[in-house]
Design brief:
Strands 6-5-4-3-2-16-15-14-12-11-10 form an 11-stranded antiparallel β-sheet. It has a 3-stranded mixed β-sheet with strand order 7-8-13. Helices cover 15% and strands 44% of the residues. Strand 14 and strand 15 form a beta hairpin. The protein starts with a helix and ends with a strand. It has 6 helices and 16 strands. The chain has one domain: Lipovitellin-phosvitin complex, beta-sheet shell regions.
Length: 336
């Protein structure tokens, strides 16, 4: 059953009968007479969608003035996570919540430069072959995250080693990048305030998403989406959704930090006992297939600036170390 098409017809029927949409004409595919479209998910029975996710960040750590030239220029490094996930409908409900199975088909994590954890197996690589079940409605709102939470904590536990002297030590890992990619999978459309009324080119709306970082710091990113234009794709109409990012004042308690208990963080980023977020800025562009109800591609790029603190006043009069993270995220629908 074509879920998105059915939901669009149902929404239009609601508008005409109840008057909530001002008597919009029934044009389920593409713009209606007032220029509005419905950005709804469309899962089909027996069809599997496959996406490639890549999270890459370049990291620079500067210790401050008065250091040697090499140190003043900063320690540089990068880390990258690449995954392929498939999504298969288990139970479809055209007017409610559908059950979807996600499976990690492949995963690779790597580090380079002066970044801790080079050459060590990243805990996130244990995702390969793992599955989780979630529930989502046609607007893209995920209604049940429990399967994702359980898997995140299972993978997070793999990032620890034990030391007789130091107790539990957490190695660098990119589990939170995996969580963010799945938690906010359809955030661009699920954050539309009144999805039953549709959106027009030029409309904008706001949301907040998490910011995975190389250190243990819970951070949020305010997002302002804008429906920029409609273009013709190979299979139908494509909504181009642009986005702008800024630093969020708050973070949601719902976002899981997939590590439990007391522990120490290994390496340079574990040496600092706190991090202060200074700034965040960037932009992105997503293409959403209106006729087939799916994300085609997503590109996000933003820069985060932080300051680190060292325990016990070891810094003295030295300036606080500064960390910059240049984050790039891509999501691409693979050929069926």
């Amino acid at each position: 059953m074509k879920i998105g098409f059915t939901v669009k017809l149902f929404l239009l029927f609601c508008m005409v009968v109840s008057g909530c949409g001002g008597g919009v004409k029934e044009e389920a595919e593409g713009p209606v007479d007032n220029g509005k479209v419905f950005l709804a998910l469309d899962f089909k029975e027996g069809q599997q969608l496959r996406y490639k996710f890549v999270s890459h960040r370049d990291i620079t750590l500067k210790w401050g003035a008065g250091e040697a030239k090499r140190s003043a220029e900063g320690q540089k490094g990068s880390e990258e996570l690449a995954m392929v996930f498939s999504y298969r409908p288990v139970e479809l409900n055209p007017y409610g919540v559908s059950t979807i199975e996600a499976k990690c088909e492949s995963v690779r994590a790597s580090r380079s430069g002066s970044i801790d954890g080079k050459g060590k197996k990243d805990a996130v690589t244990y995702l390969k072959g793992k599955r989780f079940i979630f529930k989502v409605d046609s607007s893209g709102k995920i209604k049940d995250y429990s399967g994702l939470r359980e898997l995140a904590y299972e993978i997070g536990r793999k990032s620890f080693r034990k030391s007789k002297q130091m107790g539990r030590i957490k190695e660098p890992d990119m589990t939170r990048d995996f969580v963010a990619s799945q938690w906010f999978l359809w955030d661009s459309i699920s954050s539309i305030k009144k999805p039953a009324e549709g959106v027009s080119v030029g409309d904008s709306w706001e949301s907040e998403v998490s910011v995975p970082l190389p250190m243990l710091k819970k951070a949020g990113r305010d997002v302002r989406y804008r429906f920029s234009r409609i273009r013709e794709g190979d299979r139908g109409k494509i909504a181009v959704i642009s986005s702008r990012y800024s630093l969020s004042d708050e973070t949601s308690r719902d976002w899981p930090l997939p590590y439990e208990g007391s522990f120490r963080m290994s390496g340079t980023f574990g040496f600092f006992n706190k991090y202060d977020l200074i700034s965040l800025s960037g932009s992105g562009r997503q293409e959403f297939d209106i006729d087939n109800g799916r994300v085609v591609s997503d590109r996000q790029n933003y820069l985060v600036a932080l300051e680190g603190g060292i325990p016990g006043g070891l810094l003295g009069s030295m300036p606080a170390p500064k960390v910059t993270v240049n984050q790039k995220f891509t999501m691409e629908l693979l050929a069926e």
